[in-house]
Specification:
Number of strands: 12
Order of helices and strands: HHEHHHHEHEEEEEEHEHEHEEH
Organism: Trichocladium antarcticum
Shape: globular
Protein name: 3'(2'),5'-bisphosphate nucleotidase
Radius of gyration: 19 Å
Number of domains: 2
Largest sheet: 7 strands, mixed
Bound molecules: 3'-phosphate-adenosine-5'-phosphate sulfate, magnesium ion
Helix content: 25-40%
Mean pLDDT: 93
Oligomer: single chain
CATH architecture of the largest domain: 2-Layer Sandwich
CATH superfamily of the largest domain: Fructose-1,6-Bisphosphatase, subunit A, domain 1
Distance between the termini: 43 Å
Strand content: 15-25%
Cofactor: Mg(2+)
CATH topology of the largest domain: Fructose-1,6-Bisphosphatase, Chain A, domain 1
CATH class of the largest domain: Alpha Beta
EC number: 3.1.3.7
Enzyme class: hydrolase
Low-confidence stretches: none
Number of helices: 11
């Protein structure tokens, strides 16, 4: 058995598990109304806190690696009250498993170290060397709405994704659960929810319960074969501003898909199709200028490909993670089982006139 990237995988899984513990604390405060949904701060607190914990774990284990992450600490330097709330969460979020917490280096030393570590995510990325891509809370709108969100971490080596980990605290643990963005009425109860998807290049993709205890052995996941397009299910963004929902409806019609789309926030969509809960993920450009961010796709791209899928842009080209912080060479995303991906791309190109 190959052990390539084994250590990177273990650290990435634990780092995502710990960061998700922090985001869950913030999520439940928001759901309970302790923090106002109109206030932008819950997501800010969750984003900064999770980013600090993940980068601290990476710096402890792989100090020479570059990091591309969404946030920078400037707003916290200007707002001591916000900084202190985040520090309180970062300081007090630890893995239950003392050995695992030790592997991550035991957190962040003090509030100045926290600011310093948050600012370590400014790498330009690129085609050379090892670069970690972090989205501390992907699907911020879903997070605020009480829906799906994901803590995302991918390792790029010379521009290719080698390791991908997605923590999805609000997806069902059960890989066979039907595809739905709904997490049920009782949002303060984590029972049956929380899944960690992982993949290493050439070694397949797995899912396991996200925690809070020790991480269980992963189960191999695989995309479902689509034998009949009429019964295929596809997912897309909740936000119409993130993916063109009228184009996707036309594409679905062309393909003969009869079910309405499942609208779900975040890279939980990639994880869901990778485990066969859904079949196709369409992300269709809404503007000529928007460039997708590498941290919104790196982990999901590898997890779907390792589960037997193909992930490309709308023209059928592979996503190019080697050109910087954005996917400047690609427009949109089309993810589907390898056997039907060509058929889906044909329909996409016809509708988008590419
Ligand atoms: N115009 C436009 N087009 C495409 N994508 C955009 C656009 N604007 C933002 N974003 C990015 O979308 C990320 C959220 O992903 P999803 O659209 O899958 O989920 S959601 O339904 O919007 O929550 C979201 O990630 P987060 O900011 O981490 O939530 C953004 O990076
Ligand atoms: Mg994102």
């Amino acid at each position: 058995m190959t052990t390539l990237y084994l250590r990177e995988l273990e650290i990435a899984q634990l780092a995502v598990q710990r960061a998700a513990q922090l985001t869950k604390r913030v999520f439940h405060e928001t759901a309970k109304g302790t923090v106002s949904k109109d206030d932008a701060s819950p997501v800010t607190i969750g984003d900064f806190g999770a980013q600090a914990l993940i980068i601290a774990a990476l710096r402890h284990n792989f100090p020479a690696d570059a990091v591309v992450a969404e946030e920078e600490a400037a707003p916290l330097r200007a707002d001591p009250a916000l900084r202190d709330r985040i520090w309180e969460l970062v300081r007090s979020t630890k893995l239950e498993d003392v050995g695992a917490e030790g592997l991550l280096g035991g957190g962040v030393r003090d509030v100045d170290a926290m600011l310093e570590v948050i600012d370590r995510g400014g790498s330009k990325g690129g085609r050379v060397g090892r670069v970690w891509a972090i989205d501390p809370i992907d699907g911020t709108k879903g997070f605020l709405r009480g829906g799906q969100y994901a803590v995302c971490l991918g390792l790029l080596v010379d521009g290719d994704v080698k390791v991908g980990v997605l923590g999805c605290p609000n997806l069902p643990v059960d890989d066979a659960a039907p595809l739905t963005a709904d997490i049920g009425a009782n949002q303060t109860d984590d029972e049956g929810r929380g899944v960690l998807f992982s993949a290493v290049v050439g070694q397949g993709a797995t899912s396991r319960p996200l925690g809070p205890g020790a991480l269980k052995e992963g189960k191999k996941i695989a995309m479902k074969a689509v034998t009949d397009m009429a019964s295929a299910s596809f997912c897309e963004s909740v936000e119409a501003g993130h993916s063109n929902q009228s184009d996707s409806a036309q594409i679905a019609q062309k393909l003969g898909i009869t079910k309405p789309s499942v609208r779900m926030d975040s890279q939980a969509k990639y994880g869901s199709i990778a485990r066969g809960a859904g079949d196709i993920y369409l992300r269709l450009p809404t503007s000529k200028t928007y460039q997708e961010k590498i941290w919104d796709h790196a982990a999901g791209d590898l997890i779907v490909r390792e589960a037997g899928g193909q992930v490309t842009d709308t023209t059928g080209a592979r996503l190019d993670f080697g050109v910087g912080r954005t996917l400047a060479n690609n427009k949109g995303v089309v993810a589907a089982p390898a056997a039907v991906h060509g058929q889906v791309i044909k329909a996409v190109r016809e509708v988008l006139k590419l």
